[in-house]
Each structure stands twice: as structure tokens, then as C-alpha cells.
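Q: Convert this sequence to C-alpha cells.
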Amino acid sequence: MRNGGHGIISYSFKKGSKEITIPAMEGETFDLPNSFKSITPHKAVKYGKPEGAYLAPCSGGKGNTYSVKIEALSGDKILATTNLTSGKY
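A:
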């Protein structure tokens, strides 16, 4: 499920924002909070999961690390990139 297998979503916010709080969201649904948009749905339907924009971390065995890649974009230009570990199972 590497490289976007848990889904790719975008989040838009106002230019000049100094602080951004990402709300918790339910997985396995396309009913996303305001300002979110599904770019690529998760790929776990082949494992029997319902369709959706995002698949939350779940233990498929021991030794899994879940992370998100965060990119700041302006149009198609990547301004900055960072990674955030969201869980280890």
C-alpha cells in the first residue's frame, strides 16, 4: 500500500494562513470534511474494504509504519515537502 495506496487527498486553505489544523476524518468514505478533495481513492478495495478517499492505518501484520507525505503546492509547483509518521504497528 506504499506510494498513495491509502489514498491521496488535497486540502485547500486561505493564502497567508499562519496555522492550519487538519480535522480527524473517517476512512472508507468519500464524505470528506470541507476543503478536502479526493485525488486518488485508496486501493484496498482489492482486499475487501469499502471504496473511499482514504484508508486509515490498520494492522496488516507487525512491523508496519504509517506516514503521510505533505506537499505545499501552488498550482502544479511543489513549494515544500515533509513526511509525518502517523503510527507504527
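The radius of gyration is 14 Å.
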